[in-house]
Amino acid sequence: MYNGGKIFAGLIVFICLITFPVWYNVVRGKAAYRPELKIVTEEKECVESSEYMRNEHMHLLDDWRNSVVRENKRTYTAYDGKEHEMSLSNTCLKCHSNKADFCDQCHNYLEVTPTCWDCHVIPEEKKL
Amino acid sequence: MGASFSLLTVLVLVLLAFMGVRVAGWDPLFGVVIPYTALFVFLVGVVYRIWDWAKSPVPFRIPTTCGQHKSHPWIKGNNIENPSNIFGVVIRMALEILFFRSLFRNTKTELRADPSPRLIFGENKWLWAAGLAFHWSFLFIVVRHLRFFTEPIPFFVGLIEYMDGLFEIGVPTLYMTDVVILAAVTYLFLRRVVIPQVRYISIAADYFPLFLILGVAISGVLMRHFYKVDMLRVKELATGLFSFHPVTPEGIGVSFYIHLFLVSILLIYFPFSKLMHMAGVFLSPTRNMPNDNRKRRHINPWDYPVKVHTYEEYEDEFREKMKKYGIPVEKE
Fold first, then answer.
1. CATH topology of domain B2-98+129-300
2. Are residues A24 and A68 in the same domain?
3. Could you tell me if A83 and A115 lie in one domain?
4. pLDDT-derived band of residue B300, with 50, 70 and 90 as boundaries?
5. Most buried in the list A16, A65, B210, B326, measured by CB within 10 Å?
């Protein structure tokens, strides 16, 4: 065994780095945390199905933004034929007025930083 | 042959994950059992191989150098290209590991027929550039993935993610490293196929890791931008794995399991393959030693006392007989 000490030290560093998620989660003790989304509305359904909204809401919002800002088209026809105003503040936030308990829950959990609030004013929280 | 076999293998792996999850519904197998097995094989395998290397004797100083050796005080030595102490070695190794310095010197030789047959030598930086782009992208991508493994997410993950998606192209943001890694791996593959000499020496063990990593990257990009999965549940599964409370939540898309399966196969394959250069680069005997042959005496550590029979002893033994036959002796 030559330079066994150095190689052993290197191995320890390697194992520590590889197992970072394991001991980090142990140290912080929050691995079991799950975000909780609060839906504060009487409405039964979003503009599209929940499934669609969960996976595709970012595309929908992006399309709305482009449509309104670049083409001045403000009416969205949903899959069921219902018409909605393409507006984050007036349509989305009418039901989901609780950014901290709705948007931020998943976004913070997954380190997603949407650019909505670069322009839009963060709405006042509706107290439950 | 090697290339098509490797491609086929990766495609079969993808199909296996697809069938296993979509048709057979073996989520716990693909979401828990295989990833745990992969992590175990990876860790134990890598440690074993490094330990195996560590046991090999390193008797001589064999650094390959390309700079002026430190000698007289009035000759300027180059302590990085020809390190004479540990400090130089550390700098040299760091440059090698972080920036692939020796590959930077890669040259090409070509036989030109025109105007007269001659051998020409030139720089060849493409392999270095693609290799560097690939490895750094891979590192950033791995670090970025910590956002799925940890809760709360460490600050540097957000920083890297922000830098990576700096251009804010599309929603969700296109990561620069995704583009770079796909381009770089594609180049590394094409290089093997297009350059005749490289193609000649390429075997399945060269193509398979390339296709596997390409598969991992493509499945990841597809999952992020096209075949969406429920990220909330993905993180539940991932944090569950890393905190040893494994769960396989319902309704994660199959594209996630394909991605995870390919990553698991990569981890399992790792210790048995040339990918071990990750550890091997640290143990390169031609790089990690100071060139101090003339300053320090290096005694071969496995030298054992050899039984020798010197001339004096020989003469002592045969003196009488030698004298008898008139052979001159040194001692009377």
1. Fumarate Reductase Cytochrome B subunit (1.20.950)
2. no
3. yes
4. confident
5. B210
Q: Would you give the distance in Å from CA B91 to the centre of its chain?
A: 19
Q: What is the pLDDT of residue B38?
A: 97
If asked whether residues A93 and A43 sit together in one domain, one would say yes
Count the residues in chain B: 332
Partner-chain contact A21 B150, CB within 8 Å: yes
Q: Which of A63, A65, A109, A119 to mutate to test the interface with B (most CBs of B within 10 A)?
A: A109
Q: Please indicate whether, in this complex, the C-beta atoms of A31 and B157 are within 8 angstroms of each other.
A: no
What is the reported pLDDT for B42?
96
**N-to-C CA span, chain A:** 67
Please tell me the distance from the alpha carbon of residue B310 to that of residue A73, in angstroms, as a whole number. Answer: 104
> Domains of chain B: which residue ranges?
2-98+129-300
Tell me the pTM.
Answer: 0.88
Q: What's the CA gap between B70 and A19, in Å, rounded?
A: 42
A111 and B158: CB-CB below 8 Å?
yes
Radius of gyration of chain B (CA): 29
Choose, out of B55, B232, B256, B288, the residue to mutate when testing the contact with A (most A CBs < 10 Å).
Answer: B232
Is A33–B151 a contact, with Cβ atoms under 8 angstroms apart? yes
B278 by DSSP, 3-state: which?
helix
pLDDT, tens digit, 9 for 90 and up, residues B138-182: 999 999 999 999 988 999 999 999 999 999 888 889 999 999 999
Nearest to B55 among A1, A15, A61 (CB): A1
Instruction: Look up the ipTM and state it.
Output: 0.88
- For residues B63 and B308, give the distance between their C-alpha atoms in angstroms, rounded to a whole number: 33
List chain A residues with CB under 8 Å of B90.
none
**For residue range B283-294, what is the model confidence (pLDDT) as tens digits?**
998 999 999 888
pLDDT at residue B320, as a whole number: 92
| Cβ pair B151:A111 closer than 8 A | no
